Input
Amino acid sequence: MNPPSSPGAADGPVLVLGATGQIGLCLLTRLAAAGRPAIAVCRQPRPALAPAADWLAADLASPLELGGRRPTVAIHATGAWLLPPQLESLRAAGVRRLVCFSSTSMLAKAESPSAAERDLARRLTAAEAAVAAGGLSWIVLRPTLIYGLGLDRNVSRAAAFIRRWRCFPLAGPGRGRRQPVHADDLAAAALAAAASELGGAFNLGGGETLTYRGMIERIFSVLALSPRFVRLPLLGRLPGVTGALARRMEQHLDFDDGSAWPLLGLTPRRFLAGGLADLGDGAAGRA
Output
């Protein structure tokens, strides 16, 4: 059974692993606004992004050396497979509550024709199992498709392609369901989860479900362009990862059943509700 969070965990310093990623940056912004101490961990610290944070350079391929820092909460906002080697260091540092971001890719890619994607699903599954057995009060959050700061590899890349070519390729009708979720909504979810006694793994999608084609049409709309699609070759002719990506346009990836957000006391925003700002800095100037 997952133990409840310890008294005081919601008040002490927060260790943010993966601080310069899209969720990490949103976490640092929220922590600064709340006046709560943050320890920002990444390979190449960028203090200008969050001057109030205590920045620590670290490669998570090796166990953390926190140098006397005593966080009460740790939020792992980078690849989940990097967390298991850190669990002993977190316990030793006095962490009492652990929030780990994983991904619904462990569900979507478990039976992918791509060996690399199957390996990713395996690593995520193993990481979640290690977190569950790690001896800390824990919760795992599995986002679906993340966007919001222009740092993602899905929405932002699609927007960049559309800005350049004024069209978008589809391998089929694009009926696969998607639940894109804003990075800042995930940061809010992590902080709410850290202050709660919830345990287990929760899938988190955004405030609406769209088809893949509908998601791309929304990007066209935000860029003030008329949707224009070009057809890719037949799926069976596309090799490797390219073929897997094309086939996934028709795959349903709506893993959030709507149960987690109310437990956290939150409501996620609709896709691209913030307009161009949700496509990252400078999107307006490139459109």
In short: The mean pLDDT is 91.
